[in-house]
Amino acid sequence: MAILGSIIKTAIDLRGALVSEDSPIESQKEVLIHLLEKAKDTAFGKYYGFSKILESEEVQKTFAEKVPYFDYHQMETEWWNKTQEGLEDISWPGKPTYFARSSGTTGKKSKRIPVTDEMVEAIRSAGIKQVGALANFDVPSDFYEKEIMMLGSSTNLEDKDQFLEGEISGISASNIPFWFRGFYKPGEEIALMEDWDEKVETIAKRAREWDIGALSGIPSWMELMLKKVIEYHEVETIHDVWPNLQAYTTGGVAFQPYEKSFNQLLADPIIIIDTYLASEGFMAFQNRPETTSMKLVTDNGIYFEFVPFKPEYINDDGSLSQDAPSLTLAEVELDTDYVLIISTVSGAWRYLIGDTIAFTDIEKAEIKITGRTKFFLNVVGSQLSVNKMEVALREMEEKFDLKIPEFTLAAVKIDGEFYHHWYLGTETTVNNEELADALDEALKDANKNYSVARSKALKGVIVSIVSPNVFHEWNAKNKKKGGQVKMEKVMNEEKFKEFEAFVKEENSLD
Fold first, then answer.
1. GH3 middle domain spans which residues (predicted)?
2. CATH of the domain at 58
3. Which of 328, 345, 373 delimits the end of a domain?
4. Tens-digit pLDDT profile for the chain (510 aa)?
């Protein structure tokens, strides 16, 4: 048994036994009070009367009443633009050290989200909590002596307007503690590379130099990297190169769509640990092996609120109606979709991050991500969420023995009638009409509103099959290859026409 690994495992087990956490509900009250106290003298805090809110007997309720919801556009144009100009004490004391670039899922212009030193520390602290949670997973002692492949964007941060700027994965990797750097791969030199293809090619060439025990990164890009390593070394699976690979910490997007194709790259099953790290903060991580749900980080710089995900509360652009009610952690219910709202130590306030979640265990504050507010297709009353789409596609994988890691769709009008046109990314040949019929039936079974729409204004379903690589190249063209990218699952008609033209161009090159 590895001595160092045994020591680390014992320390983690001991920490898990000794550390007792406060109730998530109580922790959230304390976090909100801390945020308000810290920011009460900022321009934002003065404008919305944080000092008065703190005097209230019901701080959470008063906070929700006095401060409106903000999406990125509102927060940026009303407050963060002043921070970008170099002004201090705008929505958080002082000035942030970093801005996280996030291309998001709409538009070509990158978002610039402030990342304060307090947020860097919060992300690091949440990461340590996640490492501590490994005590709950059955990993051998020698696992703690292996290296970790962290695949993210470049750590070569850009010096811009008094701030350092890059994607959140690059910012986080550039702040790795000194004691961890010996375990971290591909190492600082390769991590600095801007060109993703060059980075992956270099990783593939040097792969046998490393004893990788764990992976960390976005599933789509991680899968492409593993395929490149396998191809370069002319082997069957990634375990032929990294025989001690035992765990994968995934994040950025849901892992389930990639599970089937990912597992084909392995010789043996590995532990999959879900995380929820966004440009705005480290929200949640999987805390135990009995579930795929993630535990909200309720005591670490982020205050959460939850808005019931109902069509009447969502504006056409995906923003929230100011009339939408918000709930605290003490008020939520199981298996109900909520729009996630956050207030953070980076000076985001009642901020619409754009994700929808549902609680699977309220006492443990465990959630699953169910979709995006902008990936909600409600043309002609179909009320189709990403969660329902994903469930139906997993059925298609089983029924037709397919792998569908990528998809997008739009409501299109043909001869005056509305159709849902799906593009499915798969390498398997299948009858499109048969697949469309089966998908249509699965959605009817999963969603009452969709079934009603199909009996009225929604004429039918069209399915087009393309290679999953088309989606990767689309992301590379519109955003940044290898970055923190969420593929648009639902497109408007104009963007969908651009995507169709891109597909035709890609197919013509084959």
1. 297-363
2. 3.40.50.12780
3. 373
4. 344 444 444 444 545 544 446 799 999 999 999 999 999 999 999 999 999 999 999 999 999 999 999 999 999 999 999 999 999 999 999 999 988 887 554 444 678 899 999 999 998 888 888 877 877 887 777 887 888 898 877 667 788 878 888 787 778 777 776 666 677 888 888 878 888 889 899 999 999 999 999 998 888 889 989 999 999 999 999 999 999 999 998 877 778 778 888 999 999 999 988 999 888 999 999 999 888 899 999 999 999 999 998 878 877 666 788 999 999 999 999 989 899 999 999 999 999 998 889 999 999 999 988 877 766 666 655 667 777 788 888 888 888 988 888 889 888 888 888 888 999 988 888 888 999 899 889 888 877 777 877 777 788 889 999 988 888 888 777 665 655 566 788 888 888 888 888 988 887 665
Q: pTM for this structure?
A: 0.78
Provide the b/e sequence for 140-171 (b: ≥16 CB within 10 Å): ebbbbbbbbbbbbbbbebeeeeebbbbbbbbb
In a shared domain, residues 153 and 218:
yes
Give the range of the structural domain holding residue 424, as residue numbers without chain letter: 379-509
Task: Give the chain's domain count.
Answer: 2
Clarify whether residues 221 and 146 are in a common domain: yes
DSSP result, 299-336: TSSEEEEEEE--GGGB-TTSPBPTT---B-TTT--BT-
Neighbours of 487 (CB within 10 A): 20
- Which residue among 373, 406, 435 closes a domain? 373
**Residue 126 shares a structural domain with residue 271:** yes
Structure tokens at 284: 């949640």
Omega of the bond prior to 93 within 30 degrees of 0, cis? no
Q: Are residues 336 and 419 in the same domain?
A: no
Token output for 55: 């005097």
